[in-house]
Design a protein that fits this description.
alpha/beta; D-Maltodextrin-Binding Protein, domain 2; 2 domains; about 20% strand; disordered N terminus
Length: about 325
């Protein structure tokens, strides 16, 4: 009896299987793999810092390049600033308030990874959807034009003699700017922890410039592009850059005799919880931006290094940087 039942059932099962196969031939892929049109509404690009800084400039440059390259699919792109705590205020907002919204993007970078550590943020980049790294930029150390310092060595000699004699200004606590100050002190044999305590953290490049020009700080550290206008105008004097070699006539920290090189990278992430199809669509969208003449012109105009990694490669890089920066901050007393 059992044999007869199984024998009768087999043809029926074969017909069902054949029917399913016929339905899949030429049909759409499963939802997770299905191609997704993007964008389909206004794109929101968050700069998690104040106006005038590197993240803000990156976000607005990205907005313009997307428009110039006609990549918005008839939609628009908006930039908004969310300030505070080395970008971790904006990070928390992205993760908690914009889940599953693929049209919510945020600029990020090395500064935020440091900020997560120093601010003991309960949210880190692993809670987002990694999309791409975009640019890398050297740091620059500047003083006012009337400063007594005309070389990095003069500045460092004073810091070695008295770590509290110089007040430094730059971006958020634990970010690239403060990391550079700590590493420079360490490379010079100064008390890195004491020097780090003389650092004044500002929420954006505009505030850093104002702090230097007003005399609230005597030395400022930022991405090279952030002080380009004041250097060109002769308002500030550049002492050194953090790249391996001189840039635009400004000597590198290495050339000044200190074994230190540091690049500040920036990238972009999306909100958490988006589908795999949406993730691929956003990555593909940013891939198109990166290869567009409009973005390549932006890199040239801003003197940013092309530091592009997307998708899984970007995720791996974010993860490795989280480990590296935590170690560095601990070594200079900021972790």
């Amino acid at each position: 009896m059992l044999k007869r039942i199984l024998t009768a059932a087999i043809p029926a099962l074969m017909l069902v299987a054949a029917g399913c196969a016929e339905q899949n031939v030429g049909g759409s892929a499963p939802p997770a793999e299905q191609a997704v049109a993007y964008p389909t509404k206004t794109l929101q690009i968050m700069a998690p810092a104040g106006a005038g800084g590197g993240w803000d400039t990156t976000a607005r440059s990205m907005q313009k390049a997307l428009q110039d390259a006609n990549l918005l699919n008839g939609q628009s792109a908006e930039v908004r600033n969310v300030t505070g705590a080395a970008g971790t205020i904006g990070l928390a907002e992205l993760v908690t308030q914009h889940q599953k919204d693929a049209h919510q993007l945020m600029i990020t970078g090395l500064v935020m990874i440091g900020g997560v550590v120093t601010n003991k943020s309960p949210v880190d980049l692993s809670k987002t959807t990694p999309i791409a790294t975009l640019t890398a930029e050297s740091e620059i150390i500047v003083v006012r034009k009337d400063s007594k310092y005309t070389s990095l060595k003069q500045l460092v000699d004073d810091v070695k003699a008295n770590p509290t004699s110089v007040k430094w200004g730059g971006g958020s606590a634990g970010g690239t700017d403060q990391i550079l100050v700590g590493l420079l002190a360490k490379a010079a044999g100064a008390d890195a922890k004491a020097v780090a305590k003389q650092y004044v953290a500002y929420s954006g490049g505009g505030e850093t410039k104002a702090g230097l020009l007003s005399g609230d700080v005597s030395v400022a550290v930022a991405g090279t592009s952030e002080f380009a206008d004041l250097i060109k105008a002769g308002t500030v004097r550049a002492l050194a850059v953090s790249s391996a070699k001189a840039e635009d006539g400004v000597p590198s920290i290495k050339e000044a005799g200190y074994d230190l090189e540091l690049l500040n990278w920036r990238g972009i992430v999306a909100a958490p919880g988006i589908s795999e199809g949406e993730r691929k669509a956003v990555v593909g969208f940013i891939d198109k931006l990166h290869s567009s003449p409009a973005w390549q012109k932006t890199l040239t105009d801003k003197k940013w290094q092309d530091f592009y990694k997307s998708g899984d490669a970007a995720k791996s890089y974010f993860d490795s940087e989280a480990v590296r920066i935590k170690t560095v901050l601990s070594e200079i007393g900021l972790g």
